Amino acid sequence: MATSGFKHLVVVKFKEDxxxxxxxxxxxxxxxxxxxxxxxxxxxxxxxxDMLRQGFTHAFSMTFENKDGYVSFTSHPLHVEFSAAFTAAxxxxxxxxxxVAAVKxxxxxxx
Length: 111
Known about the structure:
Blueprint: E1 2-14, H1 20-33, E2 37-44, H2 50-53, E3 58-64, H3 67-75, H4 77-88, E4 90-102
Antiparallel strand pairs: 1-3, 1-4, 2-3
Helix pairs in contact: 1-4
């Protein structure tokens, strides 16, 4: 099984008073300014049962070419600055960082 980059996966429950739209805009702005981020996806859970969700509502996934790209991202001044605001908005978090084991590559969706 070949590795295919390095993944940064974050699952969060935001605090009640968080302006989630502002956090999302901030994240989108952040990743657009840092070249080591090769892809960024996010989603809000609307399908899982509350019991299975355990309060978590949003997932964020970033892909990097390798671990060095991830380390470069985490030490970037823009990431350091944004992390303070992001952390202040979080009630609960699960964070996983791992080399990707590619089993089936994503299929490109045509427009």
